[in-house]
Amino acid sequence: MTPYPSSLQAHPERAGTFTFRMEAEHPAYRGHFPGDPILPGVVQVEWALRLGEAAFGPFAAFQGLEHLKFQSTITPGETITLSLAWDAARNELAFEYADERGLKSKGFARFAARS
Description:
The chain is built from 1 helix and 6 strands, in the order ββαββββ. It is mainly beta. It has a single domain (9-111), classed as Roll (Thiol Ester Dehydrase, Chain A). Strand 1 and strand 2 form a beta hairpin. The chain is globular, with a radius of gyration of 14 Å.
């Protein structure tokens, strides 16, 4: 598991909303890419899934990703908001990463029905 940024904060008044500032020395940047670091998409998905379970309870078996789009890179020093929304009827977690300039990435994770 990739550690969260040390500045990660949940916003209890808005379930599923988190903010963090990406520190330049974060381990996710190692080797991705030297001299021009960007936060890997796989880390963004991992954090969304883990924080989704923290916000909305455990999910059933992972079924896949849909409509995954990476529109802008997340680089050191940026303050990011992660917004999550759980749709229980569809067993789907929507996630969006954004900063003050706009959307960074988004997607949907599908899960089996909870038993």
